[in-house]
Design a protein that fits this description.
Blueprint lengths: L2 H9 L10 E5 L2 E12 L2 E6 L5 E5 L3 E5 L23 E6 L3 H4 L1 E9 L6 E10 L6 E9 L14 E3 L5 E4 L6 H4 L11 E5 L21 E4 L4 E6 L6 E5 L6 E5 L37 E3 L5 E6 L12 E5 L4 E8 L2 E7 L9 E6 L5 E5 L4 E8 L2
């Protein structure tokens, strides 16, 4: 982001006053946290456009364009109807790898089922107009099955890999009678999905030849994945997922991998009762790269590759909802060697998404009815 754009952001009348900036001491030195946009209603996902402006989703069902001078647009027309209830609504947003030529925008959302009260995670794509006012040619390219009477655990991060495949994370819908389907290959619940941009299934997906298995499935045994990003060196997908009471996980995704839920977890039921593993466990469960007890409640994940924070290059950053913090995950290559809760006790914001900006700063989306976009940079 150019200095002129940054100055415009800080001076726009739609923004929070720069006087509200905070500084925090971290292991890499003093950092500055500037509120740059406010007044978003429960924002969930953020993506930068080629001109350094942003698209931001609001859970009630609005997609907004935030221009380089900080102006928040009216809702963009053409967004599919969403189920705004519980944890559902309009969720993540991503750009097609060829956006500059095809202008495809992808959105995940809670989609109503045919039976009253049922819903599930779905993904739509549409063509964004040049004036940023509307989507056209909108089509549903993925609809999680089965649709169930639950307003919890939609997962919903969207990530394109370096080969142009789209990864979609889903939740297992929380309830005990549903979550067992995270282990079932004939259900989309508790899975990482891999599809082509048009919704078709890649021939090399791991279960395409397995009888009774849904061919979109890439990995399974997940609870509620709300963070996803590609490792900058390997190009592999890593995810952050909610455990139950404790047991949040950072996972490196492998094709056909079984990540254990609900068979095995470091957490407990919300009642405090233990979640005991069965007498016999599959021998091929994939271990988490890191777990957290108590639970920070992760949402949003980004690997840092910018120049503003040389000491943080290659590290991952994960938002915390219940933990109201930003967590730096210290990585040496693919090995997790530690973590740092950057802001500490008293930080007031639930961090829903984390995105590295084109200027090398980290942009944080806060989960609130007057949500903000915060910019993290070195203190000058």
């Amino acid at each position: 982001m150019s200095p002129k754009i940054l100055i415009a952001l800080l001076c726009s009348t739609t923004l929070v006053s720069p006087a509200l900036a905070q500084t925090h001491e971290t292991e890499a030195g003093t950092v500055r946290l500037d509120p740059v946009v406010e007044g978003l209603q429960f924002p969930w996902g953020l993506v930068f456009l080629p001109d350094d402006s942003m698209l931001v989703t609001e859970r009630p069902g609005n997609l907004r364009h935030v221009s380089a001078d900080g102006t928040i647009s009216d809702p963009i027309a053409g967004v599919p109807e969403v189920v705004f209830a519980g944890q559902g609504g309009l969720l993540d947003v991503a750009l097609d790898p060829a956006f500059e030529t095809n202008r495809y925008v992808y959105m995940s959302f809670a989609e109503a089922g045919d039976e009253r009260g049922t819903n599930s995670t779905a993904v739509a794509r549409g063509v964004l107009s040049e004036d940023m006012s509307q989507l056209s040619d909108v089509e549903i390219i993925f609809s999680q099955q089965p649709k169930l009477p639950s307003n919890l655990h939609f997962g919903s991060r969207l990530t394109f890999d370096n080969d142009g495949y789209l990864f979609i994370t889903t939740g297992e819908r929380s309830a005990a009678e549903f979550r067992v389907q995270a282990q079932d290959l004939d259900s989309h619940l508790g899975k990482v999905i891999r599809i082509m941009p048009d919704g078709s299934v890649p021939e090399d997906n791991p279960f395409t030849g397995t009888e009774g298995a849904l061919p979109e499935i890439w990995s399974y045994g997940h609870r509620n994945v709300q963070g996803a990003a590609l490792h900058p060196e390997t190009g592999e997908l890593w995810v952050a997922e909610h455990g139950p009471r404790g047991g949040d996980e950072l996972n490196k995704i492998v094709a056909s991998g079984n990540f254990g839920w609900p068979l095995l977890t470091d957490g407990t039921e919300y009642s405090g009762r233990p979640i005991d593993p069965p007498a016999e466990l599959p021998d091929d469960l994939v271990e988490a790269e890191r777990t957290w007890v108590p639970s920070p409640a992760p949402s949003g994940l980004a690997f840092y590759t910018g120049d503003l924070f040389p000491d943080w290059q290659g590290d991952a950053f994960m938002g915390a909802l219940a933990g109201t913090d930003l967590i730096r995950i210290d990585l040496e290559g693919e090995e997790v060697v530690g973590d740092e809760f950057l802001f500490g006790d008293g930080f007031p914001h639930r961090i829903r998404d984390v995105v590295q900006g084109p200027d090398g700063a980290l942009y944080l989306v806060t989960d609130a009815d007057r949500g903000q976009i915060l910019r993290l940079s070195p203190a000058q």
